[in-house]
Amino acid sequence: MQYTRSVPHPAAYSRFQLQWSVTQLTISRSLRDAAKSMRMQNSCSKSSTGEGWCASIYANLCSLPLAMRRVRDARIQQLGSDDCCFEIWTPFQWKKVLWTDESIFEVSYGNIGRKVIREKDEANDPFCYKRVVLKASSVRVWGCLAANGFGNLHFCNGTIKAPDYIRVLEVNLRPSLQRLFGRKRYLFQQDNARSHTAKITKTWLRTKRVPVLEWPAASPDLSPIENIWRILTRNMAQRRPRNIKQLQDYLRQEWEKISTDILSRLVSFMPKRLAVVIRRKGDVTP
Question: Which intervals hold domain Tc1-like transposase DDE (predicted)?
Answer without folding.
Answer: 97-248
